[in-house]
Write a structure and sequence with these properties.
Blueprint: H1 3-21, H2 36-40, H3 59-67, H4 87-98, H5 120-128, H6 148-158, H7 162-167, H8 185-193, E1 200-201, E2 207-208, H9 217-259, H10 272-287, H11 298-312, E3 319-321, E4 331-333, E5 340-347, E6 350-353, E7 355-356, E8 361-365, E9 375-383, E10 387-394, E11 397-402, E12 407-411, H12 412-416, E13 427-428, H13 429-436, E14 441-449, E15 454-462, E16 472-479, E17 482-485, E18 493-498, E19 507-515, E20 519-526, E21 529-534, E22 540-544, H14 545-549, E23 560-561, H15 562-569, E24 574-582, E25 587-596, E26 605-612, E27 615-618, E28 620-622, E29 626-631, E30 640-648, E31 652-659, E32 662-667, E33 672-676, H16 677-681, E34 692-693, H17 694-701, E35 706-714, E36 719-728
Parallel strand pairs: 8-15, 18-25, 29-36
Antiparallel strand pairs: 1-2, 3-4, 5-6, 5-9, 7-8, 9-12, 9-13, 10-11, 10-14, 14-15, 16-17, 16-19, 19-22, 19-23, 20-21, 20-24, 24-25, 26-27, 26-30, 28-29, 30-33, 30-34, 31-32, 31-35, 35-36
Length: 729
């Protein structure tokens, strides 16, 4: 192993050693003034292990690291959180922590490191790790305090990230950015990019870094605590940065290749290689995560590909027919099957390209960046110039799309069917996403040209492979030794109904939860206590009731009886809120609601939740079969109220709501229905059937609460009145 490899591994190990040992020696005049074991030994039994940390912003971090045996203080029971550390002492700490041999000779380059100094060997050894190069070519400044910008440099170098740091532009939004030394700017910027440094609040919404201030022990404690807990997170963020650099370069190369192409009218067959190279660069960028929006001139490439295809097609090499005799003067008939060349979909005012694969496979990616409220109005399909028609079949019904000069403009209803476009004016992105929750959509069709040649077309509408935020994909409760599926078709909303069929003595012992790929942890919090479910070993975990609902419900750790749950549910449904996070640091809210079932002869409401931008928010069920949903102040006006999940008696059949003489019937399955806002509140609020914005509802509520009445009927015809209220907070 060469010396560079050794230095690399030492640099990576250095940060861990630093964090473990940094506080086991003094940062004052000598390391021997601190007693490493005096405070740490009593940390577990003393919530305030030191007398001087109560007002420190890092008090919690200091306590936690002391309990772990990582930090210690001074013999007098203090920690001295605001005391600084000299560069000489830091060198000694690092070298001793790594177990390196002192190397006094290497420190000879520094004029301010005396030959007989106690720290010379440490400085020389530290120099060999490339963690520091001194404050100049001839000085180390051993008696100077470690500044905040120096600390950022130490950490970034120890992470072995200096090469990446210098590649990236400085973009940290700091009020004192001009005070950061040029040599530290890349390191500080990267530390902020990955969230390792947070900055200091100025009180006016801006942040400062105070780069030249001395780094005190409490600042180091916070960084030590943060690094100890979130190493994987920072590694992931670094990977994202590197991926972003590669993506930006690939997108730039693709766009430059497209821009260099001649206009389609000027193309010749000699340009085929350039066109193919541009397409290859686009696909390479897509593999790195690029979407069609990253290529503003993609239509130029599609036109170029169509022209090259036409120039290269052997239109005169088909079958000669109708000649008779020996004249051989018949007409030439094309034998090549028609092909899809390009396409796009109109969304709002934008035109989004379709992805054309091999064998006439056409894919529309419902990208995460698309807004739920945007309307998809029509598709444009470009095929071989002599294409006549495309016949699309779904659910046994065929629809014909006609072409003119190889191009067809087709409505959503004609291409996807009336189920997606009942009004004939398109379908919202939100509605399409709800269809995709059950899986991708696929339609098959037959493309025919004017000479009768045919080819098969497959149209796919898909959601991106990775969710923008982690999702709960399924859940089941184990009661009385049996598993009961309890997940709804709304992401991250788990509704569990304690059905009448369950016996009081049955024990609810655990919950099995499956999450999307990359899910890392599900944390439930209540009364200041947090309980975390880890997905580190896979996307599915089984959790005890004590972890799920808290030890108050399950003090023995063996579950809770159905009888006890029913007693608790007399006062209303039990709702637990949590946060699901993934390895990329993304988070999404999770709601678990436990509802008391009802199988009485008279159908009743037992639970409800409003679906807002794909997330469920529980509504209140009160006596008199009334659902009340409150528009919270925390909701943004642009958010969309898409539908209402209604849980009723297990024998509930339909909810009938009459508006302007028209009755709409909402059907239940196993006691649950998902009603659109159009069905509940009428076309005035939701003409497209894809929801209503929070802003529009707030405006309507200025004149008073919105109230809708209906009739809930069970399978035997027994009915009960229902009221739905929408109020503003």
């Amino acid at each position: 192993m060469n010396i560079k490899t050794v230095r690399y591994h030492l640099s990576v190990l250095l940060i861990v050693a630093l964090l473990i040992s940094l506080f086991s020696v003094s940062t004052a005049n000598s390391a021997e003034t601190e007693a490493p074991d005096s405070a740490a030994g009593t940390a577990a039994e003393n919530s305030h292990p030191f007398s001087d940390i109560a007002d420190s912003y890092a008090a919690q971090e200091i306590r936690s690291l002391v309990q772990d045996g990582i930090l210690s203080g001074y013999e007098d029971g203090t920690f001295k959180p605001r005391e600084t550390m000299t560069r000489a002492h830091l060198a000694k700490v690092l070298v001793l922590a790594l177990g390196l041999e002192e190397d006094g000779a290497s420190a000879d380059v520094f004029a301010d490191v005396p030959a007989n100094s106690w720290f010379k060997g440490y400085v020389g050894a530290l120099l060999n790790t490339n963690i520091t190069n001194g404050t100049s070519q001839t000085t180390f400044s051993p008696d100077s305090p470690v500044t905040r910008e120096q600390l950022a440099v130490f950490f970034i170098r120890a992470f072995n990230l200096e090469a990446l740091a210098v590649k990236l532009p400085f973009d940290a939004s700091l009020s004192d950015v001009g005070q950061i030394s040029d040599w530290a700017r890349p390191h500080v910027s990267l530390a902020f990019k990955i969230g390792f440094l947070k900055g200091i609040d100025n009180g006016d919404g801006t942040l400062r870094f105070s780069p030249l201030d001395a780094a005190d022990r409490q600042a180091l404690a916070r960084l030590a605590y943060e690094f100890k807990l979130n190493q994987a997170l920072y590694k992931s963020k670094v990977q994202q940065l590197e991926a972003a650099i590669a993506l930006a370069a690939a997108v730039k190369a693709a766009n430059e290749a497209i821009a260099a192409l001649p206009d389609a009218s000027e193309l010749t067959i000699d340009d085929k290689a350039a066109v193919e190279e541009a397409r290859a660069k686009v696909e390479a960028a897509r593999k790195l995560g690029a979407t069609d929006k990253d290529f503003p001139n993609l239509s130029k490439l599609a036109d170029a590909e169509q022209k090259i295809e036409e120039l290269g097609r052997p239109r005169g090499g088909g079958i000669i027919g109708g000649g008779g005799g020996g004249g051989g003067g018949g007409i030439i008939r094309d034998t090549e099957p028609p092909v899809i060349i390009s396409g796009s979909v109109k969304i709002g005012e934008a035109s989004v390209p379709l992805v054309i694969g091999t064998n006439n496979e056409v894919t529309f990616n419902v990208d995460h960046a698309l807004n739920n409220a945007d309307m998809i109005t029509d598709f444009t399909i470009v095929a071989s110039s002599d294409t006549d028609k495309l016949i699309v079949t779904s659910s046994g019904v065929s629809r014909t799309v006609t072409f003119q000069n190889g191009t067809a403009h087709v409505s959503v209803a004609d291409l996807l069917g009336p189920d997606f476009d009942r009004q004939g004016d398109g379908v919202s992105v939100g509605t399409l996403r709800r269809h995709l929750f059950e899986g991708n959509l696929e339609l098959t069709g037959e493309l025919t040209d004017k000479t009768g040649n045919k080819s098969t077309v497959k149209l796919k509408i898909v959601k991106p492979a990775s969710a923008p935020v982690p999702e709960i994909t399924s859940a089941s409760a184990v009661i009385g030794g049996k598993a009961f599926s309890i997940h709804t078709n709304v992401p991250n909303y788990i509704a569990f109904i304690i059905d009448d069929a369950l016996q009081d003595t049955d024990m609810f012992t655990s919950l099995t939860v499956a999450a999307s790929s990359g899910a890392e942890a599900l944390t439930f919090s209540e009364s200041g206590q947090s309980r975390t479910i880890s997905f580190a070993s896979g996307t599915q975990q089984t959790v005890k009731v004590a972890t799920l609902l808290g030890p108050a419900l399950d003090p023995q750790g063996d579950g809770v009886s159905v009888k006890k749950l029913r007693e608790l549910l007399q006062n209303g449904n039990i709702t637990v809120r949590g946060v699901l996070s993934d390895t990329n640091g993304k988070q999404s809210p999770v709601i678990l609601t436990i509802i008391k079932g009802n199988n009485d002869s008279v159908p009743t409401l037992i639970g409800a939740a409003a679906v807002i931008d794909g997330n469920a928010e529980p509504a209140v069920i009160t006596s008199g079969n009334t659902i009340t949903f409150t528009l919270s102040k925390s909701l943004d006006d642009s958010q969309m109220l898409e539908s209402l999940l209604i849980h009723a008696s297990s024998n509930a059949d339909t909810l009938a709501i009459t508006e302007a003489g028209i009755t709409k019937r909402i059907h239940f399955s196993n006691g649950t229905a998902q009603a659109t806002i159009k069905e509940l509140l009428g076309t005035a609020f939701d003409p497209q059937g894809d929801g209503v914005s929070v802003g529009k509802l707030r405006s309507a509520l200025e004149s008073g609460n919105i109230t809708v009445s209906g009739t809930l009927t069970n399978y035997t015809g027994v009915a009960n009145n229902v009221t739905i209220n929408v109020i503003v907070e």
